[in-house]
Amino acid sequence: MSAPLRVAMIGNGFMGAAHSQAWRVAPRFFDLDREPEMAVIVGRDEQKNAHLAEHWGWQEAASDWREVIARDDIDIVDIVTPGHTHAEIAIAALDAGRHVLCEKPLANSVDEAEAMSRAADRAGKAGTFAMVGFTYRRVPAAAFARQLVREGFVGKVRHVRADYLQDWLVDAESPLTWRLDKSKAGSGALGDIGAHAIDLAQFITGENLTRVSGTLETFVTERPIVGERQGLSGTASDERGQVTVDDCALFMASLSGGGLGTFTATRFATGRKNALRVEISGDKGAIAFDLEDMNSLSLYDATAPADRQGFTKVLVTDPSHPYMAAWWPAGHMLGYEHGFTHQVRDFVTAIAAGEQPTPSFADGWQVQRVLDAVERSAGAGSAWTDTTS
Amino acid sequence: MSAPLRVAMIGNGFMGAAHSQAWRVAPRFFDLDREPEMAVIVGRDEQKNAHLAEHWGWQEAASDWREVIARDDIDIVDIVTPGHTHAEIAIAALDAGRHVLCEKPLANSVDEAEAMSRAADRAGKAGTFAMVGFTYRRVPAAAFARQLVREGFVGKVRHVRADYLQDWLVDAESPLTWRLDKSKAGSGALGDIGAHAIDLAQFITGENLTRVSGTLETFVTERPIVGERQGLSGTASDERGQVTVDDCALFMASLSGGGLGTFTATRFATGRKNALRVEISGDKGAIAFDLEDMNSLSLYDATAPADRQGFTKVLVTDPSHPYMAAWWPAGHMLGYEHGFTHQVRDFVTAIAAGEQPTPSFADGWQVQRVLDAVERSAGAGSAWTDTTS
Amino acid sequence: MSAPLRVAMIGNGFMGAAHSQAWRVAPRFFDLDREPEMAVIVGRDEQKNAHLAEHWGWQEAASDWREVIARDDIDIVDIVTPGHTHAEIAIAALDAGRHVLCEKPLANSVDEAEAMSRAADRAGKAGTFAMVGFTYRRVPAAAFARQLVREGFVGKVRHVRADYLQDWLVDAESPLTWRLDKSKAGSGALGDIGAHAIDLAQFITGENLTRVSGTLETFVTERPIVGERQGLSGTASDERGQVTVDDCALFMASLSGGGLGTFTATRFATGRKNALRVEISGDKGAIAFDLEDMNSLSLYDATAPADRQGFTKVLVTDPSHPYMAAWWPAGHMLGYEHGFTHQVRDFVTAIAAGEQPTPSFADGWQVQRVLDAVERSAGAGSAWTDTTS
Amino acid sequence: MSAPLRVAMIGNGFMGAAHSQAWRVAPRFFDLDREPEMAVIVGRDEQKNAHLAEHWGWQEAASDWREVIARDDIDIVDIVTPGHTHAEIAIAALDAGRHVLCEKPLANSVDEAEAMSRAADRAGKAGTFAMVGFTYRRVPAAAFARQLVREGFVGKVRHVRADYLQDWLVDAESPLTWRLDKSKAGSGALGDIGAHAIDLAQFITGENLTRVSGTLETFVTERPIVGERQGLSGTASDERGQVTVDDCALFMASLSGGGLGTFTATRFATGRKNALRVEISGDKGAIAFDLEDMNSLSLYDATAPADRQGFTKVLVTDPSHPYMAAWWPAGHMLGYEHGFTHQVRDFVTAIAAGEQPTPSFADGWQVQRVLDAVERSAGAGSAWTDTTS
């Protein structure tokens, strides 16, 4: 094994826990050509950050990301801060010659995403690479879906139905966290979870959304101001503040191959906790994925004899499935965090090979253009809006 | 029991079989205040019609619907012909003093539907009633869903996700039947199955769709001309003709109570045979219905303790459920045709009581306005379009 | 069409409703070579029986079954009385030259079943046929399962797991109906529902259970005496009586092909209403059936590529599936009663062709021997007991 | 935090990977009172062991377990070797004053298990503790099931249906691994997976199996001798050897509370990969668990209104569920390995508190007596056999 890859992680929220676990675990299950080292965790609250450094297993805690990315002993910068900070950090890190893994959505605006993408292009020419963290691509069932489409299993794609359904805002008294503040989060359900639905739909089909017609809605416009941030939803106080992002986004889309998409991203789907569902309908077959049942994939082979046709629920836990040979025997499940572990595996493997990892910042920029087109369409009475302009 | 209700059924296609079964069976399981008699079946092809009269158990076969509706011994006219004939027959029958049960969609245009609705209003004042055949309201699980919403189970409705997914046109060589001919069918997936999704969503929520933004798509624009009609899809010939209706309709909708709806009606959802699905998300609970699993209803009680929340799959076969006391012990399933049997039960019960049955022609007209608004929106770049204008 | 087949139905309980529906409906959906006529219904309570004659559509009501089976205008005797009366009626009817359809279990003892089977053999030589009513064989998914096994889909059978799970006795205060009285019902869960599980397992695999090791249990030994019979469970009174049948039966079995079976029949499976489940595991594939999801069948093809293997849920509603061409388009469901309709279709078809229908009384006798062997094994400390002795 | 707990793991097969991951991850997600240190991994093949030490993250590799357990710097001995070695290692380790975590089944015979249990009792008096690794108790859904039963949710237990279904031996050419060799594995499906089903059934109900009637079967008696061990199933060679363990075990059981159990453990359940299923039916409710759907638990509340009763599928991912507050937001899944992580958490917590962890060796001995009783019953024609003798 060559020299280790020393990682600095900027940010220490919920995503930081998932990334830490991935950096720790990936080299234990996959034979990586370069071993990642959990070097530095960066957070503004020094006490909290020091605690998390120890708890999550980082060698050092630091508070100034600028200093950290300037250090020569850092190879990778892993950005898990809120979206409005991504552009500045990522561009600086790339310019400093650090490989960058950046959480999704890439940025809070198309302009930022474009700048990041251009910075990544520049860096890439010098062998410094950037990747955006659409981890659900790395759920084995989703990766298998991509493989099947590529092999022609579904044929010509007619429909994509992609929903990301959550329900943590159903309660009108659920507090106002940073995720409901446009200045930090950029957008609401659309950018947070809709971005995943868009990326996954594009990834699995291998097609782009070329135009969209959408609408955004904020069902509950005022919520209790959060006293102290705790977990995903925080805790409430008496004061109320304005919700400045969407609670849900609905949109229709044209696919580059001629099919039609429908998308729902919402935090008001009562009873659905984390239901990212993508169903692809083609003229040869269909594929259905549901993140709430993430270890399986449903396949429909429309070329089978009529009396045998039906959805086959494949447990995607066989060594023949993507990523699975590294894990447990068939029938033993993986969980949420394994997508992050696979992301580390793919990112490190690409870097070690001197190749561009995917999804690139350009891919992230493209998703950002779709998000932007949905917002513009919503602002224009759901008029169909190109994603390329 | 008072005098029987003598029924004349106009039309003898697939729907005729379902209606015949319903007229035959309903009085055997329900105590009806007036017994229906299967008097006359009307069809243009005399030989076929005579055969079906015997096969399905009608006392007489006739070929001229005008003569039949003029007969004093006919109490009910049951219209199961294609949509473009509904208005003329229904209005004439009502004017002749016959109660009318008319298949959905009520008509092929808003104007026709309005004329029918006005004719029904006139007739209703004289105690002659009209009903439109949205039979899925009579699936016990759907009726139970309506009851639960009325009782407040879901609270304030935020989302309605209603899909009607079929796949019988996925094969581009599947033939051109009358259902793909706008002059006969009026519309494609939108009117044929989308109408059911709209009616069911409105019925269960007790709310109307007030405006829509939608799009229509015809994926396969030319198909083999059908030699002879057989079953739902017919058989193919060499010649090709134009598909003049939509293969699929997608639309978003505002609900009268402030919620948002998304609707898909398609004949290209590979692997989905008859998946009419409606999910209602409210601030107290959620309800999910799927016609492919029609004997159950999924309920989510958001007011239950956090660790007990989940979707409860209720087998809607208990005597306490709508319609079920008349049938078998709990756990014994009903099928597609039972919705029609319940429709006869409800229609006859209302007539015997001298009351307006539901859904009325006015309800059918309202659905027609929604269908029309979707078409107009689709023609105007998916601009939001009022359903009331 | 040749002369009609005039039917006399002996008995008018819950099964009478199901059989009446079947006699009425079968000729409307299937082209039968001889048309059944609902001639006479026989019941001891004359008033109730007259009411049911009208309600269910029988031409006549009668109270003495002996008189009825002696009538020359009766072709078929349909026996839907409790099990302790089957032998006497069936043998007399066969001896009188009437075709006999007899509800399951064939009898309350092996001796009775043997006598019936011998009577049927004698009658068969004269062209008079007898069939036992294991209707679940006629659920399309079960018939399709049989077809698949016959075609070699599962290969060598290793396991049969067959359960019939109900829960209507979970409540210890649920009343003492005739089904809990050994003198009438013969046995409890074992004979009532276990018989179905045995027949279905043998039917689908095409193998017999050759020996069994089982146990019977009565969890609640005393129950309120039922005031008046109503529905399946009756209503309670203050007095208590002894439960003289089993609440549940568990047994293991050897299959004639070398596989192993496990069987559970219980009325104490809380939450399971009518869950007759059969799963066949073979060296080439597996098949799983569940009566609570009766319109589908799950198939596992162990010869498929490793990454595509999974259970395929086939909606058994395609015209290519058994019985389905007579009904609705693909995706439209059948219910509980359709098994009875198919039974009439198969029975009448065999009679019209002068052929022995299946399952024969000999098949019913074989099931009875299995039931008897389970009881004997249970009485002998679960010692393995041959079903052939 | 007090002094770390230095761990020596004996064995380096598939279980070693799972345990290594658990030791590494547990302190990162749970606040443990003492931090485990991955000190030594012990394996006979020095080269392989050295490689795994590095790969899995152990500080040292060693080849002689006797030397290792004698070391004063070792606090915990974690035994993941085949069953025939458990007794010797565990007793020596306990006698040497090391806490012991031992994989299941505890031993290959009741005598060994008894000796181990007595050694654990002796050690326990000196504050040295032993635990047996029935990790599935630590799947949150299983722990939640236990909690519900304890709270009275199911009431009086009538039925336990517990199956552990795998299919990796369906192919008669699948090779002869050590798991099929009685001298190493002790027993086949019975001890390997049946032990889990027994433990889980007893754990959830809080009752013991008091007597059993069972049978064992070896469907394929000769298999290709494995060239070199690889993964769970190995690779094949030309020579054939005798399978000396059971392919499947079926048994019935009496529960200490008066209910009845049925158990199946098999490696021939085609299509079922890792289906450990336990369903508890009581007079107040039912609970169903399936390891192939491990993030959910199905609950049936028989005290709910009749029309609302049904199985509620609870996603056991809420912070209110056992272990879940340490992990991700609701709706984010855990996998197979998390049960091991929770096991480390519970083991370390008990040791730090100076308390006996569960399941104790006495619990493991009790399971061993059940396994033994099943074998004896199988050898005695399935005669009912006490588990206490």
TrEMBL record, chains A, B, C, D:
<dbReference type="GO" id="GO:0000166">
    <property type="term" value="F:nucleotide binding"/>
</dbReference>
<dbReference type="InterPro" id="IPR036291">
    <property type="entry name" value="NAD(P)-bd_dom_sf"/>
</dbReference>
<dbReference type="Pfam" id="PF22725">
    <property type="entry name" value="GFO_IDH_MocA_C3"/>
</dbReference>
<dbReference type="InterPro" id="IPR055170">
    <property type="entry name" value="GFO_IDH_MocA-like_dom"/>
</dbReference>
<feature type="domain" description="Gfo/Idh/MocA-like oxidoreductase N-terminal">
    <location>
        <begin position="5"/>
        <end position="126"/>
    </location>
</feature>
<keyword id="KW-0520">NAD</keyword>
<protein>
    <submittedName>
        <fullName>Putative dehydrogenase</fullName>
    </submittedName>
</protein>
<keyword id="KW-0560">Oxidoreductase</keyword>
<dbReference type="InterPro" id="IPR000683">
    <property type="entry name" value="Gfo/Idh/MocA-like_OxRdtase_N"/>
</dbReference>
<dbReference type="Pfam" id="PF01408">
    <property type="entry name" value="GFO_IDH_MocA"/>
</dbReference>
<dbReference type="InterPro" id="IPR050463">
    <property type="entry name" value="Gfo/Idh/MocA_oxidrdct_glycsds"/>
</dbReference>
<feature type="domain" description="GFO/IDH/MocA-like oxidoreductase">
    <location>
        <begin position="145"/>
        <end position="287"/>
    </location>
</feature>
<dbReference type="GO" id="GO:0016491">
    <property type="term" value="F:oxidoreductase activity"/>
</dbReference>
